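=== RUN LOG ===
request id: a7f3
mode: sequence -> structure
chains: 1
length: 385
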Amino acid sequence: MRYRSASSISTDAYLAGLEIGESLKEISPETVIFFASISYERNFAELFDGMRDGLGSEDAVLFGGTGDGFYETSQTANYGASALGIHSGGKIRWSAASAVGVEEDSFLAARSCALAAAAGTGSPPTFAFVLADGTKADGSGIVAGVESVIGAPFFGGLTGDDRKFKRSRVLLNGAELENAVAILAASGEIPFAVNAASGWTPIGAPGNIEDGESGTIRRINGMTAQAFMKEQLGKPLGEADLGIVPLAAYRQADDEYFFLRTPSHLDRESGAIATFGSIEAGTAVRVCTATRPDVLDGVLRAAEGVEARGFTPAAALVVSCAGRKWLLSDSGKEEVDLVLSAFGGKIPMAGFPSFGEISPFRKPGGAYTQTFFHNVTFVVCLLGE
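=== RESULT ===
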């Protein structure tokens, strides 16, 4: 397996693509996973053209999406594009598919996409990377739809648009797709390990969601959702807390692992909370808190979870919540520096700040939990030689 990462901050979409393509050309990538600013929106076709011209080939699968900036080994930025090229020497069979309609039914769109992607791998997928429109998809529905088809661990995120929350794109082989989900699947022996962590710590008393549906929580423990969070935090939620003060949610009240849900909107009249991602009535929850060092510690814990992997680290893909970047008040450089340091130096790496993260947790023995849709979480996938 050979990998190379590249990035560009050129404001010209074609030149950005060309720069990336030329940087990756040496390894003749079979697949290029890339992340681009929504600012290229009017010129995504030129970005694709530039990459194809730089690569000097039409053969590679070009799979990507928009984010709130990008991450790459050599730099992080709020504008531009990054990419990771992968060459397996024919050992891996790649298949990419897309489906529209995530706003109408995220589960069905994701299931349809997963069926199409899995059909192209020849044998059951051993690896899958998932991207979906972050302004329209329900991440929980996306995860459930993919999980109904693909049994292997999968990960990914929801695409973004530089904190505007108006539009985002999934990008696949020259097509720019809205209201869509896309999956890059692979079969064969691809060495990888994936893990997630946040750094947030549950505090206070547990609660039970008594009234809620889709992405709205109305009542917890006999009080409004906002009143419950105020009681636990010692202060009312404000607009500044949107996207960064989460609830830990447990499938079972005694579960060791939890996923996070952050408020996206506060209904002052009813006391309800809208969240980034659906959460069902009956779910056990606890309010969480974190300091800036805690958030950065989440990166190290995610990296620690892929240490006992049985292969030499050769590259990495990173999906980190855009809310973490906003909280840290930087372009994501601290997180990138930490994860690269954890893996011994400047391995090829690409990633993006997302509007929601998709990943299982990797247990100490190497087994995985089910896959969850997360908020304010850091996901790392380590790839081997």
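=== NOTES ===
The mean pLDDT is 95.
The chain has two domains: 2-197+295-384, 208-289.
=== END ===
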